[in-house]
Amino acid sequence: PRDRTAIFDPFYRVHRAGAPEVPGSGLGLAVARRLTEMMGGRIWAEGVEGANGTLFCIELLGAELDAPA
Q1: Residue of 14, 18, 24, 63 with fewest CB within 10 Å of its CB?
Q2: What is the C-alpha separation between 50 and 44, in angstroms, rounded?
Q3: Domain range holding 53?
Q4: pLDDT tens digits for the chain (69 residues)?
């Protein structure tokens, strides 16, 4: 559960005993969060019930456009 919010921190890497090391800098989800927030959206991770996995969700709200003149 703690990892589900920390994974969006820059340079955060999840380490699990017995799991293979995954390459990367730990920046991908931090960049995704920043870009999503810049577009007025939000991103989060949820556990998948009955499975050993994570579901990533992105919500982007529609932009309000000015009516043409």
Answers
A1: 18
A2: 19
A3: 3-59
A4: 567 889 999 999 887 778 788 888 999 999 999 999 999 999 999 988 877 788 999 999 876 667 666
**In this structure, is residue 17 part of a structural domain?**
yes
In the numeric block, which tokens belong to residue 67?
């009516």
Residue 66 belongs to some domain of the structure: no
Q: What are the two backbone dihedrals, phi and then psi, of residue 59, each rounded to the nearest 5 degrees?
A: -120, 120
In the Cβ-directed half-sphere of 50, how many Cα atoms lie within 13 Å? 0
Q: Which residues pair with 56 in a beta bridge?
A: 45
And the tokens for 59?
């919500």
